[in-house]
Amino acid sequence: MIEVRELTKRYGEHVAVNNLAFKVEAGRIWGLLGPNGAGKTTTMRILTGYLPATSGRATVAGFDVFDRPDDVKRSIGYLPEIVPLYLDMTVRGYLAFVAEIKQVPKARRKAAVARALEAAGLKDHAGRLIKNISRGYKQRVGIAQAMIHDPKVLVLDEPTIGLDPAQIREIRELIRGLRGEHTILLSTHILPEVTQVCDGVVIIDRGRLMASGSLEELAASFEKSDGVLVRLRRGGAEEAALFRGLPGVDRVALEGDEIRIEWGRGRDLRDDVARLALDKGLGIKEMRSMAGIEDLYMKVVAGGLEQ
Amino acid sequence: MSNVMSLVKKELRAYFSSPVAYVIISGFLLLVGYFYYSLIMWFNGAAMQMAQNPYYAQQVNINEMVFSPLFHNMTIILILVAPLLTMRLLAEEKKTGTDELLYTSPLSIGEIVLGKYLAALIMWAVMLGLTAILSIFAFAWGNPEPAPWLTGYLGLFLLGALFLAIGLFFSSLTENQIVAAFLTVVTLLLLLVLSWVTSSGGGSWRSVVSYISFSEHFEDMTRGILDTKDFVYYASFSFFGLFLAHSVLQSRRWR
Lengths: 307, 255
Prior knowledge:
The complex is a heterodimer.
Chain A: E1 2-11, E2 14-24, E3 29-33, H1 40-47, E4 55-60, E5 63-64, H2 69-75, E6 76-79, H3 91-101, H4 106-119, H5 135-146, E7 153-157, H6 165-176, E8 183-188, H7 191-197, E9 200-205, E10 208-214, H8 215-222, E11 225-232, H9 237-244, E12 249-255, E13 258-264, H10 270-279, E14 284-289, H11 292-306
Parallel strand pairs in A: 3-8, 3-9, 6-7, 7-8
Antiparallel strand pairs in A: 1-2, 1-4, 4-5, 9-10, 11-13, 11-14, 12-13
Chain B: H1 2-17, H2 20-52, H3 54-57, H4 62-96, H5 99-103, H6 109-141, H7 146-173, H8 177-198, H9 203-212, H10 215-222, H11 228-250
């Protein structure tokens, strides 16, 4: 549904997107993951026809972004990073205007606005001025605006940024609810957003592709070792050393207030780790599985910080 | 065309859903009304005196003594009002990021420019229409000639069309409304004072400069003269302004 090949965007000397290639299958939710400044917004702007690429190709819903921009624009719903709202309009008036310029036929416009209001949970706010609604609701208006013409593809740039945790959960819920009807590409710099919402991910850093594929594929290829991250009430270097003695453990590392304990794939030492912590009275505050993709992303981000 | 109309409707709603339209229209009417009132009062006094003398009585002409100076005053007010109507149109979209919605919708750049321009032009037509009401009194109790009055209003409308096209161009250049408005005022004032320079200069340079200035083209129309040359001037300069605005927006698409 979305295909990007050898896509490059230069701003003078600066290369924002560098030879990027990835694919998103129809009906799936894909995450575009990367630290700030990785080229996520630029990639999305090229896909939606807002910016021209320097070189390379991109097709959306079978149309070339450069040769058939109007067909692409009709097939895409786009939530830009800065939600494009006219603050002096009411929610309903704004959605009606967007329906007009997205060329929803006149007979279907009213129904389209009603459907978008319903889907985005805005029914009770339809008559309010956009400038008077909360940030979370503005974000919902942004999503409603993106889906007003029932596009095949939704491109959402940082849909949960700047929201409080309850709002984030609501927006994620909303996006999950759109799975199947739409192909969705959403950008984020928060890994849990990908693991909770997406079927697959494209990880980019400084404009380059680092990894891409479905979450299962990535997990299988990168997760050669299994392990846990534990947070202990007494969790210093001394305590970390205790775990090194556990049979089967390959690697133990102290990372901040967390201890990372790894072992070869195929075994499960979680019970042993917990038993040791209980026996020694270390006080388990938290223990969670280490995800391979998380590891990969941390490496990407750390690599970005080193240079 | 329906795309253009959607944008026109949206812009007109934006003018009237904020204080902008009300403030500009009432301020404009106040100024025009005051000029009109003082010109009429002056005309009354002058006409009384001139009527004493049979020779001068022939020359009492409300078109020349009231409407012609009024129309000239209105061009000066328009130099200040036109930038206020256009400064927001493209600059604000860029500033608030709403341009991203427009450019990722199936709208052509031409439709965007035209929609914005027509909305401003409709505002100007409404403002002119409201000032025309004042003239009812002159027609009810005097006997002005309708032809120069009509061509005067046509001239004002066309002049507005030209000013608004220039204003729209400057709005396309920047995301700062004050910069857009100020550059427009400067340009329009230059177009006005160009004709003053020509009174001292000479040769072909002089005729070029006086062609570019709007004063002469407008002067004809307040006297009831319709000349193709003036229409060509207004149409070509308005089109040029819109073309420049279009080019600026289009340049975003250059690879």
